[in-house]
Amino acid sequence: MEPYLRSSRRLRVLLVEEDLPQAAPLVSALASSPRLGAEITQFSRLADALSHLATAGADLALLSLKLPDSVGLASITCVRGMAPRLPIVVLARPEEEPLAIVAAQNGAQDYLVKGGPVDASLLASWLKHVVERHHILSILQESPAFHQGPPPAPRPPAPDPLPPARKGAVSTHTHGGQSPAPSRPTDALRAGDALAGFTVERLLGSGGMGTVYLATQQSLDRKVALKLLSDPFMQDPMFVKRFEREASALANLNHPNIVVIYDRGIHAGRCYFVMEYVDGMSLREVLQQKTLTPERTLKIVPYLCEALDYAHAQGVVHRDIKPENLLFTRAGQIKISDFGLARLTHPSGASSITYTGVIMGTKDYMAPEARTPNKRSDHRADIYSLGVVLYEMLTGEVPVGRFPNPSTRAAVDPRLDAIVMKALDTDPDARYPRAVEMGHDILKVVRSDGGASGRAMRAPPAQGGRNPFHVDFPSASTFKAVRFYD
């Protein structure tokens, strides 16, 4: 396919917006601009847009953060998976702007804020700039020198927010960080054992729900985390039936900040999950090294909020959010792992994988209603748990009993007190109704302290030093005053 910048054809714009009539001013401005002369194809559903993209292609995608069949960063992930080099501009309502900043971290090139009149000339100029910028970077990325970067230091540091990993350590989770070597269960697999097309390399850890191994998927030659559920669960025929039915829904979670479940099944009478192997560190390990600053914390937690909100929108409640289940890749990306206690929620409110009346989770991080037998809890229990994690990240302490505001325990912005205490309210109705709203409030504090642009939330380079082909372009904030439809 001939790149747009090297041809005389019109710019092909793929517009994916829930309310297409509302987007009419934008469409008119794009089509009438002599600077673009855009050819616009419109869809209200992501699935239809992806089908069009697969057959007809596009030069630019304008993608709403909220669609009938997809929300948030999941839409970007789907488009990016089908068209890795397609520039994406996120369309966000004013209240969604903090999330749009996060979107710039996860595949989008920039964002525009909805609302107000359209300045056709400015809009056309900026969109052309976005396409040109992305095209230039794509060319640079094809150069071997782009990937070589500066000469590596003898012992390069791990990327922010991860401190350097210690040697000779074995993780107790689905990643490769440093934890005490796990004890071997009596029915453990050993290095070289094969199971359902996977070859076991070593034991990563074990717990109440099961045992996790580092393994190699033979068909794709990739490292995975292989989790076998414990025998007591296998003695319950009802659990096995639920596992078969509901593991598929867990595997359908597709978000850049959630550990991917590649496969699941039953082999030799054992239920197993095949998960993404995260070769990094857990948040617990980072906290133990006491290197996490409040500034880093405020850049990390909004990603967790958005990921949880995505899972909740899919009907999945995690039920065990804690530092051990929050993993950093070596590139500095945080991911939520171990949905082993997850409960799928349904319109009827019925629980599935776990039983109402059975307390499951980690006590210090559990919401009050989740600690009470026969009392139903919902997604707001995850928000409480994330509030505990945030309190610990800011103060180094877990809030137990009657606890003070974070700002009285550590040098943190007092404006964070209201956010943390709202998440930790004992009454679920008084907490944030959605995790993403908690993230929005955190980002407001970040932006008011000089982080107003999307650039402020962008991750540091994966290695020390500056890439010689690094190109500085105007950030999204330069253009965020372009408000284009109500």
Explained architecture:
The chain has 3 domains: 10-145, 3-Layer(aba) Sandwich (Rossmann fold); 194-276, Phosphorylase Kinase, domain 1 (2-Layer Sandwich); 282-457, Transferase(Phosphotransferase) domain 1 (Transferase(Phosphotransferase), domain 1). The protein has helices spanning 24-32, 46-56, 73-82, 97-103, 120-141, 144-148, 231-234, 237-251, 283-288, 294-313, 380-395, 415-423, 435-451, and strands spanning 12-16, 39-43, 60-64, 66-67, 70-71, 88-92, 110-113, 194-195, 198-206, 210-217, 222-229, 261-267, 270-276, 281-282, 316-317, 326-328, 334-336, 343-344. A hairpin with a 5-residue loop joins β16 (326-328) and β17 (334-336). By secondary structure, the protein is α+β, with helices and mostly antiparallel strands. It starts with 11 loop residues before the first strand and ends in a 35-residue tail after the last helix. 31% of the residues lie in helices and 17% in strands. The strands form 5 sheets. Strands 8-9-10-11-13-12 form a 6-stranded antiparallel sheet. The chain has a 5-stranded parallel sheet with strand order 2-1-3-6-7, with helices on both faces. α1 (24-32) packs across α5 (120-141), α10 packs antiparallel against α11 and α11 crosses α12.
